[in-house]
Structure formats: structure tokens, C-alpha cells
Amino acid sequence: MKDNWIDKIERKYSKYALHNLSLYMVICFAIGYALAILPSTSGILDYLSLEPSKILKGQVWRLFTWVISPTRQDNVFWVLISMYFYYSIGRTLENVWGDFRYNVYIFSGLFYTVIGAFIMYGILAFIGAGNVQIGYLFTTYYICMSIFLAFAATFPEMEILLMFIIPIKVKVLGVVYVVIMIVECIGGGLFIAIPIVASLFNFLIFFFSGRKRIGITRAQQTMRKEFRSKVKAAPKQTVTRHKCAICGRTDESNPELEFRFCSKCNGNYEYCNDHLFTHKHVE
Length: 283
Description:
- This protein is mostly helical and 283 residues long.
- It has helices at 5-13, 21-37, 52-55, 62-65, 76-97, 99-126, 141-154, 170-188, 190-209, 218-233, and strands spanning 159-162, 166-169, 259-261, 270-272.
- A two-stranded antiparallel ribbon has the order 1-2. A two-stranded antiparallel sheet has the order 3-4.
- The chain starts with a helix and ends in an 11-residue tail after the last strand.
């Protein structure tokens, strides 16, 4: 199986990945929300936002501190629900993709957002409006949206309860959110489109360059390749033992596991209950 770009950099730098990055993100969100709602600290956010004009004047900390800018300021209940939701789907992606790939996905989204802010500043400076404040446009709102889109692309058939009542597949919500963002880009013009496209550029790169293998770790790819080779080389005989195509565990080594064949995979691929719903379908 030919390596893609994420495989190559993962081999070199995977040891530097942050574990449980989703938790750090939620902590940043909580700090930003607290600063926004407390009367004595709300003005602090003005010194932390992503303002390219002020960064160029020496306030370089803004390159990093803008990540605590709250995405919205609803009541505490919905903020807590949002934090829990994004933490949950983020942890799921971390577990399936691995820490390194999730790190690359999140940090590339933050990087592209900073690039987008400077592009907007350059356009404003060109038309003589370089002093206009744009930091409020660049928050982690669309970074969170990119996490959800990644989750929807990785687990399209999974169902969640909309408003805690209505079951709906995440791929449907993903399509709805994409349509909403397209409408926002068209209706809001260039200065709305730039923050959206910049924040979601990581999603476009990941899922149009890596396609169906982007959520599969290198170790999983290797195990799948070895499993295919063994199946082809094995003599024609009745198989009496169950074996997971992802982790290689069997009903003999792990009798507590259940094994099922996947009807959507092209071929007779069997998976344990830990990987039956999280694996990438073989085509």
C-alpha cells in the first residue's frame, strides 16, 4: 500500500503528539467563556484576539491567545453542552485516528485560520482600511465545526439525538452544516467567506488528499495488508477461528470478544466488536 503524506510525517514526528488534545481545547474554551461573561475581565479578550495589525506592531502573543476567544456567548447550560459534545467527538476521533493525526488536523486548522486573518488584513490594507478590527471574526467556532465535519465523514452512519429527542445520522447534519456555511459565504461576502474557508481548509486537505485512508493509522494499514497477504497465501480450507482484520485478535486469544463479518466491505472481512463500527470499509 503506497504511503500518503500523513503516513510519512507520522513516522517521523508521532512521538511529539499531545495526548488528549480535546481536553486542552475544552479548557481553553472554558477560560475564554469565563473571561467574556465576568464584568471585571471581559476587556481582557480585546488584548488576546487575532488582530494582524497589532501583531505586526509587536503583540505576537495574539498568534496563540486567540484560541480562547469564545465561539458564542449563550447561557451556561448550552455552553456546557457544546463543550461536552465537542470533547466527546474529539476524543472519539483521537481514539480512532490516533493522537498524531488528530494533532495535525487541529493545529493545521488553527494555522490556516491565522493565515486567513492576515489575508483579510492584506486586503483591507490594500483598500485603505487596515485599521479595521477583524479579530471578532476569527474564533474557534469554525474549528469546532471542522471537528464535527471530520466526525461526520469518519462515522457517517452513526446516529445522535437532535435536541435530545430526534435520532438523526451525523452525515445528514454534516450536509446541513455545509449548506449553511455555503449560504453564509454567499450572503456575507468575502469577509465572511475568508474566516470560514480558512478555518475549514484542514478538512478540505485531509479528506480530499487522504480520502478514505485518512482516518486509518499506519499500524492499522499494515495489519490490514498483512491480513490480506495471509488470506491469499492460505490454502483453501474451512476457517474455524474468528480473527479481527484490524487488531488481529482471535476468539482463542480473547474469548470475551464477539466477531462479525462486515457486509459493506468488499470481501470476507471479520472484525471484533471494538472495530466493527469504527473501521474503514474495504472496497
